[in-house]
């Protein structure tokens, strides 16, 4: 007997876990041997190509004083932001900081000046454009790529989760039927179900830039995974 599928991806990088449980009560059940149960656990993993990407770049300046460091910034954050906007990205944050910079010495460390960092973060749903966004930011004055994160949109993640849960439930019932069959019994309705899900919802990529002056940045994202697990108790007939 096949159960109706419920719904779940397993990507490096940043993991999330949660659990939901519910019980289905049979008000007519009686505590007899014929109402014994079997409990099984199963899991499943679904992979998806990322459909969201976040690029973080920065302009950096150094100097003997905080003011000098700020004045020595390699690029204007406004110019970087405008360039990314024009390239179709959605700039989600812009952060600026100045801090002392230290250098290790034989006796410990000593301050050698200040470093100013202006960080800009942008998101896009066009995953294939990430390399172009990196080049656009660098051309506008960014001299550091702090990170590239690939992830799933909520709609894609939910679809993957549902698929994984469906597969996990199918596997759970199949295992229960094998166990029940070995005892000459058949599997009835589920009387309790618990689910949990996790996965590699975010993957990180390193940029790979061509070495010649005319080269452009090329990036290949990995897949994102969603995992689902179920623990099911079935009534035995």
Automatic annotation (TrEMBL):
Pfam families: SIMPL. One of its GO terms (biological process) is DNA damage response. PANTHER family: SLR1258 PROTEIN. This is SIMPL domain-containing protein. It comes from Haloarcula salina.
């Amino acid at each position: 007997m096949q159960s109706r599928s419920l719904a779940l991806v397993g990507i490096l990088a940043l993991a999330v876990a949660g659990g939901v449980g519910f019980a289905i009560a049979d008000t007519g059940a009686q505590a007899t041997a014929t109402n014994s149960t079997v409990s099984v656990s199963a899991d499943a993993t679904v992979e998806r190509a990322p459909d969201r990407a976040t690029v973080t770049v920065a302009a950096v300046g150094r100097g003997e004083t905080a003011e000098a460091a700020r004045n020595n910034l390699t690029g204007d954050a406004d110019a970087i932001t405008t360039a990314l906007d024009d390239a179709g990205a959605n700039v989600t944050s812009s952060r600026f900081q100045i801090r002392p910079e230290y250098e290790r010495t034989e006796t410990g460390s000593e301050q050698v000046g200040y470093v100013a960092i202006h960080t800009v973060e942008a998101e896009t749903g066009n995953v294939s454009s990430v390399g172009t966004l990196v080049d656009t930011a660098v051309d506008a004055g960014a001299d550091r790529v702090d990170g590239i994160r690939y992830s799933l949109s909520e709609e894609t993640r939910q679809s993957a989760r549902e698929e994984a849960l469906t597969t996990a439930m199918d596997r759970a019932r199949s295992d229960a039927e094998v166990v029940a069959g070995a005892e000459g019994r058949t599997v009835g309705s589920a009387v309790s179900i618990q689910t949990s899900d996790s996965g590699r919802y975010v993957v990180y990529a390193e940029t790979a830039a061509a070495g010649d002056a005319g080269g452009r940045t090329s990036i290949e994202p990995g897949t994102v995974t969603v995992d689902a697990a179920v623990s099911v108790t079935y009534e035995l007939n």
